[in-house]
Design goal:
Rossmann fold, 3-stranded antiparallel β-sheet, globular, 11 strands, 8-stranded mixed β-sheet
Length: about 300
């Protein structure tokens, strides 16, 4: 009887999870659902419905499903390059902006904006989603994507996830390049210890320092880490500039192609440097031999 009760309770829990309401971003050319908590290898054990975090419907919270919002490259300019974009949000929400996605598409670059499942204290969940996104986009040769030209991008917590993914994938599956915007690389920075901040959302409150050290991306770098472009502002108060600089230094030590640009002002954002950011992105891809610069950015 006890075994039967256990089975019934288990099925009831599964039913609750599978009945969760999910939301999706509008405006993409194509939306692809990779999996949710009932079909993925790992779960974040989120039981609440997915919800918008703002009235403009550009920020999500309580995510329990993984989706890719694909913005197709301009057919006349298609370079074969694709970029998986990991949104920031401190691992507590996802800030989903489509402006850059549309710009990338206009330059002949397929943009795949990733709605990843927030960790809710289960660090393996967003990593599973980001790695799965890179693997999936490589299969979309029907969009003119060259599997050897798939990169990854992210800002803030999304920058940490992009860097983490760059190093966690097997060498033969790693992205061709990475572009990181003010990435929250060092998870042991005093700013994140003892608070319900990015590291707490990722590992759960009361995490051991050693575990935070293990997911500090500058300690993951090897000679096979992808070429990486890093952009940030010197007056960033949310991600100490020393954090992304530590990643750059690790790349240099291991002989990885890397470029670092620090703007004097702008805070935790590159909104004031949009044109410069776009130009650097095209210069970087051109320098890597992946694309030719477009002049109408």
């Amino acid at each position: 009887m006890q075994r039967l009760l256990t089975i019934v309770l288990t099925l009831a829990c599964v039913a609750v999870v599978s009945a969760q309401k999910t939301i999706t971003l509008e405006g993409a050319d194509e939306t692809v659902r990779l999996w949710d908590n009932t079909t993925a290898k790992y779960s974040n054990y989120e039981t609440r419905d997915e919800a918008w975090n703002n009235k403009r419907k550009t920020s999500m919270k309580q995510t329990s499903s993984c989706e890719l919002y694909i913005f197709k490259a301009d057919a006349a300019k298609n370079t074969g390059v694709a970029l998986v974009i990991c949104p920031g949000g401190g691992y507590s929400h996802l800030g989903l902006s489509i402006t850059t996605c549309r710009w990338l598409a206009s330059q002949g670059i397929t943009a795949a904006l990733l709605k990843y499942r927030l960790p809710n204290g289960h660090k393996e969940v967003p990593l599973e989603d980001a790695m799965g996104a890179v693997r999936y986009i490589r299969t979309r040769t029907d969009l003119g994507i060259d599997p050897a030209k798939v990169g990854i991008n992210g800002g803030s917590a999304g920058g940490h996830l992009a860097a983490w993914t760059s190093n966690a994938l097997p060498d033969e599956e790693k992205p061709a390049f990475a572009i990181l915007h003010y990435p929250a690389i060092n998870r042991t920075d005093p700013l994140y210890i003892g608070t319900q901040n990015t590291t707490g959302h990722l590992l759960g409150m009361g995490f051991p320092l050693a575990e935070a050290e293990d997911i500090s991306a500058h300690k993951m770098v090897t000679s096979t880490t992808p070429p990486t472009l890093i952009m940030l502002c010197d007056d960033d108060k949310k991600v100490p500039p020393t954090s992304p600089v530590a990643y750059y230094e690790a790349l240099v030590r291991h002989g990885v192609q890397a470029s670092l640009h620090i703007f004097p002002r702008g805070g935790h954002s590159l909104k004031a440097q949009v044109e410069e950011q776009y130009a650097m992105t095209l210069d970087w891809l051109d320098w890597l031999g992946l694309t030719k610069k477009q002049n109408n950015h």
